[in-house]
Amino acid sequence: MNIKLVTGDSGTKRWFYQRLTGIFLAVLLIVHFTVMHFIGTGETDYQIVEARLASPLWKTFDVAFLAFALYHGMAGLWVVIDDYVHRDGWRILIYSVAVLAGVLFFTLGAITIVTFTPHIVWFPTKV
């Protein structure tokens, strides 16, 4: 059975969004480095991350960072798959696995960031 994957898409939209997410990632990375390494003490420990994730603004920032990074990486992976996997059946399978992995990673990351609750003691010490 010979299935042809023809979308009529030249890849221009993917190319544009790859560049756009790259720009957003660069801006978010500069903000992250400036806040975490230049404005603060320069040291990062659990308490600093905990205080940062207590703010809805930083949670939104981190979820956006995660979304842009995953989209950017998955778009790059999509191009690699398109270039190097020539059999249509394998390409569909690998695309499907890649999309499921991207959705899974975003879901797990977003749940971790959004539901993070400060001041939980996971390993209480004996006094």
Verbal overview:
With 127 residues, this protein is mostly helical. The chain has a single domain (12-114), classed as Fumarate reductase/succinate dehydrogenase, transmembrane subunit (3 helical TM bundles of succinate and fumarate reductases). The chain is 72% helix and 0% strand. It has helices at 12-39, 46-53, 56-84, 88-114. Helix 1 packs across helix 3 and helix 3 packs antiparallel against helix 4. The mean pLDDT is 86.
Short note summarizing the structure:
With 127 residues, the chain is mostly helical. The chain has helices spanning 12-39, 46-53, 56-84, 88-114.
| 3D shape | elongated
Give the H and E element order: HHHH
The end-to-end span amounts to 70 Å
What would you give as the CATH superfamily? Fumarate reductase/succinate dehydrogenase, transmembrane subunit
**By helix and strand content, what is the structural category?**
mainly alpha
Report the mean per-residue pLDDT as an integer. Answer: 86
Range of strand content: under 5%
Structurally, how many domains make up the residues?
1
The CATH architecture assignment turns out to be Up-down Bundle
Count every helix, treating DSSP H or I runs of 4 or more residues as helices: 4
Question: Could you tell me the number of beta strands?
Answer: 0
Level-1 CATH class name = Mainly Alpha
**Helix residue percentage:** over 70%
Q: At the third CATH level, what is the topology name?
A: 3 helical TM bundles of succinate and fumarate reductases
**Integer-rounded radius of gyration:** 20 Å
* Low-pLDDT segments: none
Major beta sheet summary: none
